[in-house]
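Running this now, will post back.
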Amino acid sequence: MKNLLLILLLVSSASLSLGQTTDSLKIKLSKEWNIKGYERFGVIDEPSAEQKNDKVSFKPDNSCSIRENGKNYSGTWSIDKTKTYIMCSLSGGIKRNYKIISVKNKEAIIEYQTPDLIRTKYHLEVK
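Update: finished.
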């Protein structure tokens, strides 16, 4: 009986911590990020002249804006249940899922895979 009570206590505390982790991740991502580099095939390139003002902004109200290659997009964002992807629904019916590689206070790395299976890691820093 003691073991059953201990197991129930552990399971309930684990499920509570999962919810906190999602909120914590959302708080960490809810910033305006400059794109400081694009990584393809293991090589990190600095933004070109056209890309030097590229940025990503995730807001606490789940709105987002992206400036990439000089083009602006806006829409909404959310984090999937596994806390692995940022799912964006952008203007013009564009949907993008970014894999969360790492998130720190002032730096993050997210990855996007094109329909052609080309992966790009976005190296981000807080503006």
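Helices lie at 2-29. More later if anyone needs it.
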